[in-house]
Design a protein that fits this description.
The chain is about 30% helix and about 15% strand. With about 375 residues, it is an alpha/beta fold. It has a ten-stranded mixed beta sheet with strand order 1-2-3-4-7-8-9-10-11-12, covered by helices on one side. The longest helix is centred in the C-terminal third of the chain and has 15 residues, at about 255-270. The model is unreliable at about 1-10, about 10-15 and about 365-375 (pLDDT under 50).
């Protein structure tokens, strides 16, 4: 057993004599817990009790689940495991941002980020090891796609950061803006969302949870019909199919007209506004023609616009951010046209914890393209 800060998260990880790991309870919903506990002699209502111990109380030692019979607790400890992953490293930035490297229960690692802005806490979580979408301005894309995370590996990041930062009584926000495309791992991310939003789980309002997608249209259409639905953010980044397809190959499968139609339908079905994210690339997507088209797009949707100056990674990505004065000028131009717009100046830059910078790079190899350590 390994104890973490605060003594609350103490993963139990065992291996059978045959070398096969026992079932991991962490990440299961009530139905999944009921199936495993039933095989161990548990009663139907034990699943709800274990659910609260795992996610609301963040107690991972079955022997401490005192509202279960001792014999069942002992059998769970012998024949199951409770493993949310483990913090492998932390990298802090001057603004209070902390980037975490998390070792996953099923192997491999991801990065997650703690952010604090004017008292507002946000946890940025990963949904995949690597990413398959190959966006040209994103460092995670250089890893390629390794695998999806399961629900326990996703919410495990939140639990580990929550415990490490002593957030037990503080409300926080969750954004799926870390490594991976959340809607590519649709089932895993939505299962994790339900655990985060469950009153007997993490207890977050669904409005505190945001999924950011590069524009997977089928996932957006499915999301509109979910009962427990996080907020939606869409990474737009270009206003013509030609440029967007170059920057974001996903646009070749889901071109702008189809994406915009899906977003209009999403607004009609849900009655909710969403966010369009626009990473500003100096001299690439910030010209007058792009801005004119951007104004028309935002006006046509129930959306607000978030401008994000590109986060540079010298030696890895060829793009640059516009000057701060140019970014502010673009914002003011859009505001004058009646576009609801804000600028997100990213946090955690010196820790390489900002948007598009997560890629498991060794801290001393940030400017060494091709380093094999980039691929986990």
């Amino acid at each position: 057993m390994t104890a973490s800060r605060g003594g609350r998260l103490a993963p139990i990880a065992m291996t059978s004599a045959a070398g096969i790991p026992p079932p991991n309870l962490y990440g299961l919903d009530r139905e999944g817990l009921g199936a495993v506990l039933g095989s161990l002699g548990g009663r139907p209502y034990d699943a709800g009790q274990v659910f609260r111990w795992l996610y609301a109380r963040r107690c991972l030692d079955p022997l401490a689940w005192t509202d279960l019979p001792l014999a069942l607790r002992e059998r769970i400890a012998r024949e199951a495991r409770v493993d949310p992953g483990a913090i492998a490293a932390r990298t802090a930035a001057a603004d209070g941002t902390v980037k975490y490297r998390i070792d996953l229960a099923r192997g491999g690692s991801v990065e997650a980020v703690f952010m604090l802005d004017r008292g507002r806490v946000t946890l940025c979580l990963s949904s995949q090891v690597g990413c398959a979408l190959d966006c040209d301005f994103c460092l995670t894309a250089k890893m390629g796609f390794v695998r999806h995370l399961d629900p326990g590996e996703i919410v495990g990041q939140a639990a580990l950061l929550q415990d490490d930062r002593a957030l037990s009584e503080q409300r926080f926000n969750v954004v799926f803006m870390g490594m991976g495309e959340p809607l590519h791992n649709y089932d895993g991310v939505l299962a994790a969302t339900r655990l985060l939003a469950d009153p007997d789980g993490f207890g977050l309002s669904r409005t505190r949870i945001t999924i950011s997608t590069a524009g997977l249209v089928p996932g957006i259409e499915r999301l509109a019909r979910e009962k427990v639905r996080p907020r939606l953010a869409v990474s737009l980044n270009a206003t013509s199919d030609e440029l967007r397809s170059r920057l974001m190959p996903v646009n070749r499968r889901h071109p702008l007209p189809r994406l915009l139609a899906a977003l209009r339908a999403y607004g009609e079905v849900t009655g909710e506004r969403f966010t369009l994210e626009y990473v500003l690339l100096d001299g690439v997507n910030d010209g007058e023609a792009e801005l004119r088209r951007l104004i028309k797009i935002v006006r046509s949707l129930p959306a607000k616009l978030n401008l994000i100056p590109f986060n540079e990674v010298p030696g890895w990505l060829p793009y640059r951010a516009p000057s701060r004065a140019k970014v502010i000028g673009i914002r003011d131009r859009l505001l004058a046209e009646g576009v609801p717009v804000s600028v997100r100046f990213s946090q955690g830059l010196e820790a390489r914890a900002a948007c598009g910078q997560l890629a498991l790079l060794p801290e001393d190899d940030a400017t060494t393209p091709g380093n094999p350590a980039l691929i986990p």
